[in-house]
Specification:
The complex is a heterotrimer of chains A (329), B (316) and C (254). Helices cover 69% and strands 0% of the residues of chain A. The longest helix of chain A has 33 residues. The N and C termini of chain A lie far apart (68 Å). The chains are: A mainly alpha (329), B mainly alpha (316), C alpha/beta (254).
Chain lengths: 329, 316, 254
C-alpha cells in the first residue's frame, strides 16, 4: 500500500501539483468574470510573476551551496513581490482597459498578453528567447510543491467562499447581472471591476512565481494566448457561476490528457485506438471543449447543483416589529 | 533607409497587408452576421495551406499517420490554390453545422460560441499534427511556374527589386477583394447578407433563408481564410500545425483596428498593420510581432469602435 | 413653503441631431409626489436618466438640495439619496430576491472591503443587519415567501414590487419611479396609488413618477409636469394641467 502510494505520487506528483496551479489560474480568470468582465490577461500576470521569481532566485539571491535547497522564506518574498508588481500593473492596465466591454475587453487583454510575450522575447532581463533556466529548487521532488500549492489553494477557496457571500461579492455579481442597475444602487463600477481584475492578477502572479521554480525554467512560452484559451476553457467547462466551477474545471481539464494516456494503456485495445489516444489526446481535448459548451452550457458545476449539498440556510428571523401595511396586490 | 529599400518595404507591407485584409474579412463576415468571433478561423487558414500542398500532389514528411503519402496526381499551383480555398470553405461549413448551429439553436450566449471555436481550433491544430506531423512544409520553387523569382522595377543602375511572390500575393488578394466587393454589393446574396447583418430577425421575416445564408458566410469565410493561408505559406513556408494561430491573433488586431463588422474597415486595417509592420526598422525586427498588438491595445483604449466602426449607443 | 429638493434648469440632451430633452426647467419640492406625463418619446425616461446620472446632459444644470449634481456619475448620485426604478425592469435576474434587496443596501455599509471579505465580527453583524432589513422590505412588498427565488422567475407584478423594494433599500430621500403601474389594470393601479402614498409617509420620501394613465396621475400627484417632444409644455397641480390648452392639444392631437 505504502509502495503503491509512493509510486503513485512519484508518477503523478507533477500532474497533481499542476492541477492545483490550474485551479488557481482558473480562479484568476473567474474573479474578473464575476463582475462580468471577460479578461484573458491572466497568462500575462502569470508570466510576469514567474519572471520575477526566476530573476530573483537566479540573479539576486546568492547561489546555493550544492546539495542544499532553495530557502522557502525567499520563495515567499518572491511571491510577495510578484503579487505587488502584478497589482500595480493590473491597476495601470485595468483602469483604462476595463472601460471596454465584452469581446473588446477580451481582445485588449489578448493584446496585453501578446505584447508582454514579445517583450520577454526581446529583453535581456527575461533571457530573450532562451528564457531563464536552472531556477533553484526549494524541494527535492515535484510532489513536495504541494506543501506550497495546496495551502495556497485552500486559502483561495476560503477567500472565494467568503467573497461570494460578502457585500463585495454581491457588488461583483450585481455588475455582472446588470451594470446600469448596479450603478443605480450606488455601486462604483470602476472600483469593483478594477478590484476584481487586480485580485485575479495578484493570484496569477503568485501562481507564476511558484510555477517558475516548479518548472525549473521560465520563458516566453509560459504566458501565451494558448494558456489564455486553456484557462478560459477551465472556467467555462467547469461552470462560470460559482468559483467551484473554476476549481473543478481547472483540475479535470489538466488531468484529462493524463487520463486519456492511462486509458490508452489499457490492455487489449485495438492498436489504432491506443495510438490515437496517446498521439491524438489533444484532438479529443479540443472536441471535448467544443462539445462541453453544447452539452454543459452552464458548466459542470452550477449554483443549483451545489445547493443540493448545502445545508439549508440558517432560518433568519425577520423583525416582527411594525411590519408595514401594504395593499394586497 | 535608402529609397530602394523603402520601396521594397512598402511592397512587402502591401503584400502582407493585403493578405491580412482578406484573412480578416473571414472574421468580419461572420462577425457582422452572427456577432461572434470565430477563433477557429486561424486553424482554417492553416488547413487551407495544407490542402493546397496536398492538391499539388506533394508528399508529406516522415511523421504522422499520412507520413510519405501523397495524391496520385499533382495539380498546378493556381488550381490547387483555389481547391485548397474551397476545401477550407467546406471545413468552415462543417464547423458551422456541427458546432455553431446547435449552439445557436440552444440559445447559448456568445461566450460559449467563443469557447467552442477555441476548442475547435485546438482540435484542428492537433488533427493536422496527428496526420502529417509538426514539421514545416514549403511549396516548391516551381509553384509559380516560369516566373522569375523577382522583378526589377528600377533601372539596372538603381534597382528596385520586388519578390515575385509578393506581387502574386498582392494580385491574388486584390482579385479576391474585388470579387467579394462585387458579391456583397451587386448580387442578391450580397444584399441578403447585408440585410441579415443589419437585423437578422427582420431579414428572416422578409423571407431570407437565414440558415443557408449563414452557411454560405462560413463557406466564404473559410474560403478566403484558406486562400490567405496558402498565400502566406507561399511567402514564408507553412511552419507547422500552429502556423495560423499567431496569424489568427493578428487578424483580430486588423478587424478591431478597422472596426468590428466593417468590410472596408477590415481592408484598411489589414493594409495599415501590414505597412506598420514592414516599416519597423530591421535592427528591431524582433519587436515586429508586437506592433499589431500594440496598435490593437491602443486603438481599443482610444477608439474602440475602430476606424470605420459605428459608435454603439447604450440603451437604458 | 417647502424646500426645493431637486431643481432642473434648462436641462438639455441631444442624441445625434435629435433633441430628447430641450431646455427643461422645474423644481421638485420636499415631500411631494411629482408626476411626469407626456406621449411616448416625449423624453420622460431620458429626463430620469439625466437626473440619475446615467446619461450626461448636453447642457443645463441639475441641483439636489442646493448641491450641483450635473455630470456626476450614477453611483455618486445614488449615494446622495436618489433611487430609481426602470421602465423595463432591471433586476439582477440570476440572484435571489433577497440578494437583490441586499445589494440595494450596498451604500449603507460602514465596514470596508477587506473586513467584509475576511468576515470580521463587525462585518458579520452588519451582514446580519442587512439581511434582516432585506427581509423587512420584502415583507413590505408581500414577497417574503419568495425571498430565495431567482428574480428572473418572478411574475411581472412581483418584479415591479421587488424593484421598488430594492430602490427603497437605498434609504433614498428622492425616489424616481419609471412607469410603476405599467401593465396593471385600473384596480391594481388604485392599490398602487395607495401604496405609493404609504411609502411616502413611511420613508419621508419625495417621489417623482412617470405614468401614462391620466386618472391615476391626477388622483395621486400633487403637481404634474407635461413633456412633449422634449419640451416642458405645462407644469402645475392636476386641475391646472388638465385644463391647459397645450396639454389638450398634445394629447388629442396625437
Amino acid at each position: 500500500m505504502i509502495e503503491f502510494l509512493t509510486n503513485f505520487l512519484s508518477t503523478y506528483g507533477f500532474l497533481i501539483v499542476s492541477m492545483t496551479f490550474s485551479a488557481m489560474l482558473a480562479l484568476s480568470l473567474y474573479l474578473p468574470l464575476m463582475t462580468g468582465q471577460l479578461s484573458l490577461a491572466s497568462p500575462g500576470f502569470y508570466a510576469l510573476g514567474g519572471y520575477i521569481a526566476a530573476w530573483m532566485s537566479t540573479e539576486l539571491y546568492p547561489p546555493l551551496a550544492t546539495g542544499t535547497t532553495f530557502p522557502i522564506p525567499s520563495l515567499f518574498v518572491e511571491m510577495l513581490i510578484a503579487a505587488v508588481a502584478c497589482a500595480i500593473l493590473a491597476l495601470l492596465v485595468g483602469v483604462p482597459a476595463l472601460r471596454l466591454r465584452g469581446i473588446y475587453l477580451a481582445l485588449a487583454t489578448i493584446a496585453f498578453v501578446e505584447v508582454l510575450r514579445v517583450l520577454s522575447l526581446n529583453l535581456d532581463v527575461t533571457g530573450k528567447a532562451i528564457g531563464i533556466f536552472n531556477i533553484p529548487q526549494p524541494f527535492v521532488t515535484k510532489i513536495e510543491y504541494l506543501y506550497i500549492s495546496l495551502p495556497m489553494l485552500i486559502v483561495c477557496i476560503i477567500f472565494m467562499y467568503r467573497l461570494e457571500r460578502s457585500r463585495v461579492g454581491r457588488a461583483f455579481r450585481a455588475l455582472r447581472e446588470d451594470e446600469l442597475a448596479a450603478t443605480a444602487m450606488g455601486i462604483n463600477p470602476t472600483y469593483y471591476k478594477v478590484l476584481a481584475f487586480m485580485m485575479g492578477a495578484i493570484l496569477a502572479g503568485m501562481v507564476g512565481a511558484v510555477s517558475a521554480h516548479f518548472l525549473n525554467t521560465w520563458n516566453a512560452r509560459q504566458g501565451t494566448f494558448d494558456l489564455s484559451i486553456l484557462v478560459l476553457a477551465y472556467v467555462i467547462i467547469g461552470g462560470s457561476r460559482t468559483f467551484w466551477g473554476s476549481i473543478v474545471g481547472g483540475m479535470l481539464l489538466t488531468a484529462l490528457p493524463e487520463v486519456l494516456r492511462a486509458v490508452a494503456g489499457i490492455q487489449g485495445l485495438p492498436p489504432f485506438l491506443t495510438g490515437f489516444l496517446t498521439e491524438g489526446r489533444l484532438i479529443i481535448y479540443g472536441f471535448l471543449i467544443a462539445l462541453g459548451t453544447l452539452f454543459f452550457p452552464q458548466g459542470l458545476i452550477t449554483p443549483e447543483f451545489l445547493r443540493r449539498f448545502a445545508r439549508p440556510p440558517k432560518a433568519s428571523t425577520p423583525t416582527k416589529s411594525k411590519p408595514l401595511q401594504t395593499p394586497s396586490t | 533607409m535608402n529609397i530602394a529599400l523603402f520601396f521594397q518595404q512598402i511592397a512587402n507591407g502591401l503584400a502582407i497587408g493585403s493578405v491580412y485584409a482578406i484573412f480578416a474579412l473571414g472574421y468580419t463576415l461572420i462577425f457582422s452576421i452572427l456577432g461572434i468571433i470565430n477563433f477557429a478561423h486561424g486553424a482554417v487558414f492553416t488547413l487551407g495551406a495544407y490542402f493546397t500542398y496536398t492538391f499539388m500532389g506533394l508528399a508529406f514528411g516522415f511523421n504522422g499517420l499520412l507520413a510519405q503519402q501523397k495524391l496520385p496526381f499533382g495539380l498546378p499551383f493556381p488550381i490547387a490554390l483555389v481547391l485548397g480555398g474551397l476545401a477550407a470553405g467546406a471545413i468552415g461549413v462543417l464547423i458551422e453545422r456541427a458546432f455553431f448551429r446547435p449552439l445557436r439553436m440552444r440559445g447559448g450566449d456568445s461566450l460559449l460560441t467563443l469557447v467552442s471555436s477555441l476548442g475547435i481550433a485546438v482540435a484542428i491544430v492537433n488533427i493536422i499534427q496527428y496526420l502529417v506531423g509538426a514539421e514545416a512544409y514549403a511549396y516548391p520553387m516551381s509553384a509559380l511556374g516560369g516566373l522569375p523569382p523577382s522583378v526589377n522595377f528600377g533601372t539596372p543602375e538603381s534597382p528596385l527589386i520586388v519578390r515575385t511572390v509578393q506581387i502574386v500575393i498582392f494580385a491574388v488578394s486584390m482579385i479576391i477583394l474585388a470579387g467579394l466587393t462585387y458579391l456583397i454589393n451587386a448580387t442578391r446574396t450580397g444584399k441578403a447578407l447585408r440585410a441579415v447583418a443589419e437585423d437578422a430577425t427582420t431579414a428572416s421575416l422578409l423571407g431570407i433563408n437565414t440558415d443557408r445564408l449563414i452557411m454560405f458566410t462560413f463557406f466564404l469565410s473559410g474560403f478566403v481564410g484558406g486562400i490567405a493561408g496558402t498565400l502566406v505559406g507561399l511567402s514564408v513556408t507553412v511552419t507547422g500545425p500552429y502556423f495560423g494561430i499567431a496569424f489568427g491573433l493578428k487578424g483580430l488586431a486588423v478587424i478591431v483596428l478597422g472596426g468590428l463588422g466593417s468590410i472596408p474597415g477590415a481592408v484598411i486595417g489589414g493594409l495599415v498593420i501590414g505597412l506598420a509592420e514592414a516599416l519597423v526598422p530591421s535592427q528591431s525586427s524582433a519587436l515586429k510581432e508586437a506592433v499589431a498588438f500594440a496598435i490593437l491595445f491602443v486603438i481599443l483604449l482610444v477608439r474602440p469602435q475602430g476606424i470605420m466602426g459605428r459608435v454603439q449607443v447604450q440603451k437604458v | 413653503m417647502s424646500n426645493v429638493v431637486l431643481q432642473a434648469s434648462k436641462l438639455t440632451r441631444m442624441f445625434g441631431g435629435l433633441c430628447a430633452v430641450n431646455e427643461v426647467s422645474f423644481d421638485v419640492l420636499e415631500g411631494e409626489i411629482f408626476g411626469l406625463i407626456g406621449p411616448n418619446g416625449a423624453g420622460k425616461t431620458t429626463l430620469f436618466n439625466l437626473v440619475t446620472g446615467m446619461t450626461p446632459p448636453t447642457s443645463g444644470r441639475l441641483t439636489y438640495r442646493g448641491q450641483n449634481i450635473t455630470g456626476l456619475r450614477a453611483h455618486r448620485i445614488a449615494a446622495l439619496g436618489i433611487a430609481r426604478t426602470f421602465q423595463n425592469i432591471r433586476l439582477f435576474g440570476n440572484l435571489s430576491a433577497l440578494e437583490n434587496v441586499m445589494i440595494g443596501q450596498h451604500l449603507s455599509a460602514t465596514t470596508n472591503t477587506v473586513s467584509s471579505i475576511v468576515g470580521l465580527p463587525a462585518s458579520r453583524r452588519e451582514e446580519n443587519k442587512t439581511r434582516d432589513r432585506a427581509y423587512e422590505l420584502l415583507e413590505m412588498v408581500n414577497l417574503l415567501s419568495k425571498a430565495d427565488d431567482k428574480a428572473r422567475n418572478f411574475a411581472y407584478g412581483d418584479q415591479r414590487r421587488l424593484e421598488i423594494a430594492r430602490a427603497l433599500a437605498l434609504n433614498p430621500q428622492l425616489l424616481l419611479l419609471d412607469e410603476p403601474g405599467a401593465g396593471m389594470n385600473p384596480n391594481e393601479k388604485a392599490e398602487l396609488s395607495t401604496f405609493i402614498r404609504q411609502m411616502r409617509q413611511q420613508f419621508n420620501l419625495t417621489i417623482v413618477l412617470i405614468e401614462h394613465h391620466v386618472p391615476m396621475v391626477m388622483g395621486l400627484c400633487d403637481r404634474i409636469a407635461v413633456l412633449n417632444f422634449g419640451l416642458l409644455i405645462a407644469l402645475g397641480n392636476p386641475a391646472q394641467v388638465q385644463n391647459d390648452p397645450a396639454v389638450i392639444e398634445a394629447y388629442l392631437g396625437d
